[in-house]
Amino acid sequence: MKVLRNVNFLLILLFSLSCTTPKQKQPIIERLDVDAFEAKLNTLNNAFLIDVRTPSEYKSGHIDGATNIDFNQVDQMKVAFEKLDHNQPMLIYCAAGGRSNKTRILMAEIGFTQVYELSKGMSSWEAAGKPVSLK
Question: Is-catalytic flag, 19?
Answer without folding.
Answer: no
